[in-house]
Each structure stands twice: as structure tokens, then as C-alpha cells.
């Protein structure tokens, strides 16, 4: 909305209010609503908020459970912070009824389908843990919302100060910031304006004072900055007013750096704990598990899967979120597709056949690739299902060469390397596949899962990240470009000609490309300055979707109306602000460098390598124990069953097949990789969804391929060595 139109709307609103106070007549135009705020909330609030709201409201209608009196205030504060449309009673009701339903349904299904008490106990403890987690859900969502919002607060103060330097109107400045910021802070600012429109507060200062007060416990530098901005309205001298505005930006920049410095120093302890609990100890536990399960036939692969693919990832993710919740505000990037809907087409695979154009969701290609690889991985199970108990599709390579098939395998006469190798345990249950061939093929299951996820996110984000990186490159150069443009305007050169002059002096740079696009639109298409920059079809900003650049150009357009000298001064100040923002941002990233570098190395190298080696060792141990169990069985039968009656044979079970064990570990490597990528990206960049998706696409691809290669090679080498040793000794 143009600035002039906004001023007219505000003037009309206050004229009606003054008229109603003078005449005593209430201007009844119906209920005061803000469709813009409600529509904005509907578009920007995360989808899981809507599901949570529905669950809480349904639970409250089903059975009301009120929270303790001392917790009601904290519930209300959290609900208000993240714009949830629920009550404390609804949140408390869902935290009890939800886990209760999970326990009952999970236990019933487990008893009917699996008849395993382990699952009943698991759902019982998991449900009890969910009670406490769901009670803290509003607080957790509020912390996540605050972290996203606090990451934008430096930019928020920047936009407000930038606008108020040339127009001292706080209401317009708040609207200007809300227009250029992304969610969630833009939604907060919209609500600040909405509270004035609905007359909840008398004026914008009261509404802003109430909103900034909610950040007093979490971000004092933002509160101080907003107080300085509001105090600038009362300064009588222009120089003092501008100095107060500059001071507000300086305060938030300096205190942000100081808080980030303390955060970086205090981060090593939590990260070390996360690394030990989420990476080292679980992987070391994998070495012991084969020995444990070999002495207990009651333990199955899905018990380990619940531990490693459900409980551990949830625990690691929870610890990571707690670490991120203490991160101070910073200078973060946003998903440009969310702020520029016209760029969402780059998330899809665009196919041009000449006569027709198609836009295909990349999830289709990802599912296809993942399904093909997983089909290869589960082929041993499919062969066994097709062949039945006669092992028709199984074969082994004997110790002295030759291939043995069919019924000979059931007689246990083959001691070589097998493809499937299903075994019958003492309870009569058939377990497998234990064959080395099946173990090697199993690596295709985590490979399919990992590549499907990685390909989806890589294809979804690769084009957008290139566009954003191009814009970020322009932002880095833009401060010097604005200084030059301000200098040209200060020399009396018209704005239309100044763009061409700066483009010539910055030829070969990204900034020069931007100014050249503006100059071309002015000279060749006959556009005015505003249209040459902001036109929806030909504007220069279409190639450089950056809100910092857009806001700078809007300041230029508005200040140029007041004269070239004012425009020159405005651009010089904006350039100085942008330079300060990037200087602090680089210092913050430097502080996080060691921690982030360590976490990246875990994802790309340490975790897949260690896990792959552990899987190879586990495969060897399982094979040796299986051969020992078979050898003891043969000795028992030769001695007339004496040894068997003594229970020596029962000391060794058949254990968990390496096939399932590797699949569980491989999927855990994928899950842990995604969690560590999200965590390291959050520490370095705050909430930057686009960069997180891009890194998942790149780093997860390398990680899962490295893991699968190492697992494949180590399993093959260790099993061949074990087979050679066992063949020569038994």
C-alpha cells in the first residue's frame, strides 16, 4: 500500500474518532475487525498449530480439566505469544486425554496383533512421558515462536528506524516493518496495529508498549530499542531525534553480539552432552547388543527399532530444541518463497516439452527412487515369501566351492556363505535372513530412505538457494553502492540518471547488474524510477528478491519526493545500517564456527563411518555366534544329546539377523543426520528453513552413501575373515 494512501486512511480514522468525541455520537460501522490480520494469521501460522488447536478444543469439549492456579498465567502467556486460539483448560485437557488414548489404543493393538508385553509397557511409559511433554507444548511452541521472532528483531528495528528517519510516524513505521518482515514477527506487528484498530488500546504507543513488554524477560535489547524509538517522537530538535533513532539500532546490535558471545561460550557443554547421548553412547551400545540378544531369543529386531528409531531420535531432538531455545536474537535469513509467492514454482520440477509445460512436485521422483532402492533391499524377504519353507530361492557357496540349493540347506550341511539362510529356533519360529547376501542387500533400505528424503529437499531448495545467494551477494555490496548513489544525488544529479552513473562505475558486480536493470527500464521502457524498480513484470527487484534491498529502494523513492539532498542523506544512513548489520552477522557466525564445524563433521563423516564399522563388527559377531551354535548342536547330536541336556547348547541363541540390525542402524543414521543438520543450522543461522532443507539435501546424500559403502565393504571383509577362521578351527 503506498505511503500516501496509508496516511489518508489513518487521518480518516482519527477524524471519525474526534468527531464522535465532539458530537457524542458513536460511529457505528459494525463490529471492528481486521480481515487482513485474520487472513495473514491463517496463511502464516504453521499447520501443526491448527491441528493442536483442534485437538485442544475437542478435548476441552469432551472433558474439561483445569490446570493448577499457579500455572494458568504461564499457559495464557504462552498461548498469547504464539497466537494460539485455545484456552489453558483445553491445553490441559488434551495433555491428559491424548496420552490416555495413546496408551489404550497402542496397548490394545499390540495385544491383539503382536501379543508382546514389551509393546504394552512401551506405550505405557511413552504415554506417561507424553503427559508432561504435552503440558509444556504451549510453552514449547511459544519458545519456538519467540526464537523465530527474535531472529528478526534486528531487522525490525532497522526497518522502523530507516522509515522514521525521513517520516516521523510510528504507526506507518510499524506497518512498513510488518510489510517487509516475514512471519512470525510480521504477524506480531500486524496484531499491534490490529489492537489499535479494534480500540483495544488508545493509540499505537500503548499497543507497542504492551507488546514490547511481553519480551522483557526474553529480549531486553529489543525492548530498549523500541523505547528509544518511541522516545524519539518527543524530541524537539531534529538532530536529537535522529541521534535517538541511531542509538536504538546501536543498542540492539551491540547487546545482540554480547549475548551471542556468552551463548557461544556456554554452548560447548550442552553440545558435548548431546554428542555423547545421541551419537557416541548409542553407537557403542550397538556393539554390545548382538551379545545381549544372542543369549535371549525373546528379543527381536523391532524391540531395537523402537529404541533406536523412536525413543532415541525423539530424545535427541528434544535436547537439541532445548539448546536452540536459549539462542539469542540474531540476523537470520528467511525462505524467500514464503515472502515472494511467485518463486514457489521453483520448488517443483518444471518440464518444458515445447507444446506444453508441466510443473511436477519433486516428491514424486523422490518416492520413485526410494521405492526402487527399498525394493532391492527387501528382495531377500520377497524371495523367502515366494519360495516358502523349502527355501527354493536360497543358495549357499560351500566351504570348498560349489553352489548348494534347496533341501540340502535345511539339513545344515552347508557351512559356507548363504544368500538367505533362514533358521528355526527352539520355539519353532523361523527367523532370518542370516545370510551374508541378504545382509549386503539390506544396505539398500536405508540408502533408499536417505536418498528419497535428500533428493526431495535438494530439488525443492536448490534453485531458491541460488536466487537467495545472488540476492545476498548483492546485499553485501549494496552498502557501498548506496553510498555511491547517495553521493550522485548529493551532487545534484537527477535520480533517473544516477542509476546509470552508478551502474557504469560498478560494472561487473552484482550491484552493477541491479542498477543496470533499473537504468534499462528507465531508458528503454520509459518507466519512472518507482516502476523501474517495483514493477511486477519488469521491475529490477524480480531478479533480486531481497527485503533489505526493497526497503532501501522504497526509502529512496519516498525521500526523493522531499528533495535530492534528503534522498542522499537517507541513502547514506541506510547504507551505514546495512554495513553494521552484516558486520555483526559475520561476527556472530565466527563465534559459532567451532561448534557448527564440529557438528557438520559428525554428519558428513564421523557418524556414518563409526556406524558402518559397528554394523560390520556386529555382522561378524552374529555370524560367529551362529556358527558356534550350529557346531555345538552337531557335537551334541554326535554325543547322544548329553551336551544338549546340560544346557550348553542353549547358551547361544541365533541372535538378531544382521539384515534387520543394519536396517535399524541405517535409518537411525538418517534420522540423526537430519536432527544434527537442523540443530547446527539453527545454531548458526537461527530459523532458516530454506538453508536447512538445502543442507539436508546435500549433507544427507553424502552421509548415507558413505555409511552404505562402509557398511557394505566392512560386512563383506569381516564376514569373509570370520568364515575363514571358523572353517579352519571348527
Shape: elongated
Low-pLDDT parts are 24-34, 642-649
Give, in spatial order, the strands making up the sheet with the most strands: 4-3-5
Structural class of the helix and strand makeup?
Answer: mainly alpha
* Radius of gyration over C-alpha positions, nearest whole angstrom: 32 Å
Number of separate strands:
7
Report on the structure:
The protein has helices spanning about 5-25, 35-45, 45-60, 70-80, 90-115, 115-135, 135-150, 155-165, 170-180, 185-195, 205-215, 220-230, 240-265, 270-295, 300-325, 335-340, 365-375, 380-385, 405-410, 435-440, 445-490, 495-505, 510-525, 530-535, 545-560, 565-640, 640-645, 660-685, 690-730, and strands spanning about 350, 355-360, 395, 405, 415-420, 425, 430. It has about 725 residues and is mainly alpha-helical. Among the domains are: about 40-145, no CATH class; about 150-265, no CATH class; about 465-585. The protein is elongated and about 95 Å long. Residues about 25-35 and about 640-650 have low confidence and may be disordered.
Secondary structure: elements and pairs:
Layout: H1 3-23, H2 35-44, H3 47-62, H4 69-81, H5 88-114, H6 117-135, H7 137-150, H8 153-166, H9 170-180, H10 185-197, H11 204-213, H12 220-231, H13 238-266, H14 268-294, H15 301-325, H16 336-339, E1 349-352, E2 357-360, H17 363-377, H18 379-387, E3 395-397, E4 403-405, H19 407-410, E5 417-418, E6 423-424, E7 430-431, H20 436-441, H21 444-490, H22 495-505, H23 510-524, H24 529-534, H25 547-560, H26 564-638, H27 642-645, H28 658-685, H29 689-729
Antiparallel strand pairs: 1-2, 3-4, 3-5, 6-7
Amino acid at each position: 500500500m503506498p505511503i500516501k494512501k496509508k496516511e489518508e486512511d489513518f487521518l480518516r480514522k482519527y477524524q471519525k474518532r474526534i468527531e464522535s468525541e465532539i458530537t457524542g455520537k458513536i460511529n457505528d460501522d459494525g463490529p471492528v475487525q481486521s480481515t487482513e490480520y485474520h487472513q495473514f494469521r491463517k496463511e502464516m501460522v504453521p499447520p501443526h498449530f491448527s491441528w493442536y488447536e483442534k485437538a485442544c478444543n475437542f478435548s476441552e469439549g469432551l472433558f474439561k480439566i483445569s490446570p493448577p492456579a499457579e500455572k494458568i498465567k504461564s499457559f495464557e502467556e504462552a498461548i498469547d505469544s504464539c497466537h494460539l486460539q485455545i484456552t489453558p483448560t483445553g491445553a490441559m485437557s488434551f495433555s491428559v486425554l491424548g496420552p490416555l488414548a495413546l496408551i489404550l489404543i497402542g496397548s490394545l493393538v499390540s495385544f491383539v496383533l503382536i501379543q508382546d508385553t514389551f509393546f504394552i509397557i512401551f506405550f505405557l511409559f511413552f504415554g506417561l512421558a507424553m503427559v508432561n511433554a504435552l503440558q509444556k507444548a504451549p510453552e514449547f511452541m511459544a519458545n519456538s515462536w519467540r526464537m523465530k521472532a527474535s531472529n528478526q528483531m534486528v531487522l525490525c528495528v532497522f526497518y522502523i528506524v530507516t522509515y522514521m528517519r525521513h517520516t516521523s510516524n510510528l504507526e506507518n513505521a510499524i506497518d512498513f516493518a510488518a510489510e517487509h518482515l516475514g512471519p512470525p514477527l510480521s504477524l506480531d506487528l500486524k496484531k499491534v496495529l490490529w489492537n489499535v484498530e479494534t480500540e483495544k488500546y488508545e493509540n499505537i504507543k500503548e499497543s507497542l508498549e504492551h507488546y514490547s513488554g511481553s519480551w522483557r524477560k526474553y529480549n531486553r535489547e529489543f525492548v530498549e530499542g523500541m523505547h528509544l524509538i518511541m522516545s524519539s517522537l518527543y524530541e524537539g530538535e531534529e538532530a536529537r531525534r535522529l541521534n535517538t533513532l541511531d542509538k536504538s539500532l546501536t543498542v540492539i546490535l551491540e547487546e545482540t553480539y554480547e549475548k551471542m558471545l556468552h551463548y557461544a561460550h556456554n554452548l560447548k557443554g550442552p553440545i558435548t552432552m548431546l554428542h555423547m547421548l545421541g551419537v557416541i553412547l548409542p553407537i557403542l551400545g550397538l556393539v554390545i547388543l548382538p551379545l545381549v540378544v544372542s543369549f535371549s531369543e525373546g528379543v527381536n529386531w523391532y524391540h531395537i527399532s523402537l529404541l533406536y528409531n523412536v525413543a532415541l531420535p525423539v530424545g535427541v531432538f528434544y535436547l537439541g530444541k532445548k539448546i536452540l531455545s536459549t539462542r539469542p536474537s540474531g540476523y537470520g535469513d528467511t525462505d524467500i518463497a514464503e515472502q515472494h509467492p511467485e518463486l514457489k514454482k521453483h520448488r517443483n520440477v518444471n518440464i518444458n516439452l515445447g507444446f506444453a509445460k508441466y510443473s511436477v512436485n519433486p516428491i514424486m521422483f523422490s518416492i520413485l527412487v526410494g521405492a526402487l532402492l527399498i525394493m532391492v533391499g527387501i528382495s531377500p524377504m520377497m524371495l523367502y515369501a515366494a519360495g516358502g519353507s523349502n527355501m527354493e530361492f536360497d543358495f549357499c557357496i560351500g566351504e570348498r566351492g560349489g553352489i548348494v540349493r534347496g533341501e540340502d540347506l535345511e539339513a545344515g550341511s552347508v557351512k559356507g556363505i548363504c544368500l538367505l539362510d533362514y533358521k528355526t529356533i527352539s520355539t519353532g519360529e523361523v527367523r532370518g535372513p542370516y545370510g551374508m547376501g541378504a545382509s549386503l542387500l539390506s544396505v539398500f533400505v536405508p540408502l533408499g530412505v536417505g536418498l528419497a528424503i535428500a533428493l526431495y529437499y535438494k530439488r525443492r531448495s536448490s534453485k531458491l538457494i541460488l536466487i537467495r545467494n545472488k540476492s545476498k551477494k548483492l546485499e553485501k555490496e549494496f552498502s557501498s553502492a548506496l553510498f555511491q548513489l547517495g553521493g550522485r544525488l548529493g551532487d545534484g544529479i537527477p535520480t533517473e540518471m544516477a542509476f546509470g552513473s552508478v551502474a557504469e562505475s560498478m560494472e561487473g558486480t552484482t550491484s552493477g547488474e541491479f542498477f543496470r536493470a533499473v537504468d534499462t527500464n528507465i531508458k528503454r521502457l520509459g518507466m519512472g524510477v518507482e516502476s523501474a524498480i517495483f514493477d511486477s513484470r519488469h521491475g529490477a527487484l524480480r531478479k533480486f528478491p531481497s527485503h533489505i534491498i526493497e526497503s532501501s529502494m522504497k526509502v529512496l523513492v519516498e525521500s526523493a519526493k522531499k528533495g535530492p539532498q534528503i534522498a542522499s542523506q537517507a541513502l547514506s544512513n541506510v547504507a551505514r545500517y546495512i554495513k553494521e548489520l552484516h558486520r555483526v552477522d559475520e561476527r556472530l557466525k565466527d563465534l559459532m564456527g567451532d561448534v557448527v564445524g564440529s557438528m557438520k563433521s559428525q554428519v558428513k563423516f564421523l557418524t556414518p563411518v563409526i556406524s558402518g564399522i559397528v554394523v560390520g563388527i556386529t555382522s561378524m559377531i552374529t555370524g560367529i555366534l551362529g556358527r558356534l551354535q550350529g557346531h555345538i548342536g552337531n557335537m551334541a547330536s554326535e554325543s547322544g544329546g548329553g551336551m544338549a541336556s546340560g544346557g550348553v547348547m542353549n547358551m547361544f541363541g541365533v541372535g538378531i539377523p544382521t539384515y534387520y540390525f543394519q536396517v535399524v542402524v541405517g535409518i537411525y543414521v538418517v534420522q540423526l543426520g537430519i536432527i544434527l543438520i537442523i540443530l547446527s543450522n539453527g545454531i548458526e543461522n537461527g530459523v532458516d528453513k530454506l538453508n536447512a532443507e538445502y543442507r539436508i539435501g546435500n549433507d544427507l546424500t553424502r552421509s548415507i552413501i558413505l555409511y552404505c559403502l562402509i557398511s557394505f565393504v566392512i560386512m563383506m571383509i569381516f564376514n569373509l575373515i570370520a568364515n575363514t577362521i571358523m572353517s579352519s578351527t571348527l
